[in-house]
Structure formats: C-alpha cells, structure tokens
Amino acid sequence: MREPDAGRRRGRRLDPVALLAVGLFVLLAAAAWPALQHRLAALPGNAAIAAIETGRPLTEAGLTRALESRRAALAALEDGRAKREVGMVHLRRARDPAIVSTVRWADVPAASTALRSALARAPADHFAWYHLAMAEALGVRAASAARALETAYAFGPYHPPIRAARTRLGLALWAELAPEARETVLAELAGTRSGRRR
After folding, report:
1. pLDDT digit string, tens, across residues 155-166
2. pTM, whole model, 2 decimals?
3. What pLDDT was estimated at residue 195?
4. Burial (0-12, 13-18, 19+ Cβ within 10 Å), 26
5. Whose CA is closest to 58, among 87, 101, 109, 92?
6. Rounded distance, CA 193 to CA 195, Å?
7. Which of 175, 103, 87 is nearest to 138 (CA)?
C-alpha cells in the first residue's frame, strides 16, 4: 500500500518551467505595480489637467483636485510629466483671473521649483520650458524667463496649441531675447497672423 503513496509524491513534484513562469509573472506584476498606482492616483485630476493644457476655465476645486492627484501619483512613482503638471497647476493658481483677483505669489516659486524638477528628469520637454518661462516672467526674472523661452523654442519650434501665448510671452521678453530667438518669435507671430486670416 505504500507504493501508490510514493508514486503520488513523485507526481506532485513542481515543474521547473511552471515555477519559472510563476516567478516571472510575480516579478512583472511587482515591477508594474508602481506605474499602475501612479496612473490610478492621477486619474481624478486628468480632466482638470486637460483643461489647464487647453486654457479652458477651471474652479479652485478643480485645481486642488489636479494638484492632489499629481502629488499622490508622484508618491507612487517619480515622473517628469506629473512634476510638470504640478508646476502648471501652481502657475494657473497664481494667475488665473477667474480664481484670484491678484497674483498668488506663493504659487510662483512653487511653479518654478516643480518645473525645474520636471526638466531635471526630461530636459527636452519644451512644454515644461515654456511654462517655466511664464513662471519666471511672473516672478519678475526676465533674463531667466528669456533663457527658458529660448530653450522652449529650441526643443519645440512648432507647437500650435501654445503658439499665440508663446508669441505674446516672446514679445513681452523681447529686450532679453537673443537675436535668433527674436527671429523665431517674429516667424511664429507671422504664422499666428496668417492662421487667423484663413
């Protein structure tokens, strides 16, 4: 009677290929977990971030939701885009006339800090450079704003969603811009005007 038990024990040995597959699945799931947490935490603020990016109106509650969701997402996983979006929220909170009657000065350095942190992770992000230029200009640091704007043009010379706003910023910083950047601003201004005539 002992022989069938011994046979069953031999049959229960784990297959090395199955063990490898299970181990690989566990490893991949563990590696993907922070990214999944990041995406889930960011989800409640996605609509507000989209409104910021397109210039649509937002409430204070929407900005708060966007900021809290990005902070929660960053707690799960460091990400350059989420850091840029934190900076964009601070910038919008600082100057949105629908929300504040005067500039909220505390949000200006917070915007610059978040945007610089984003650029440390993604130095070619022209959208972050453009927002940093706005934050620096709002903080009355014209030379720094001009350098950021020049870098935004260098990495993203053609970006229709921000073309008109970037041109206005370029004209406001005209005295601080290098000659090549001035030419780019004028070219973008010509493109903006021709686009309006169509």
Report:
1. 988 778 888 889
2. 0.76
3. 54
4. exposed
5. 92
6. 5
7. 103
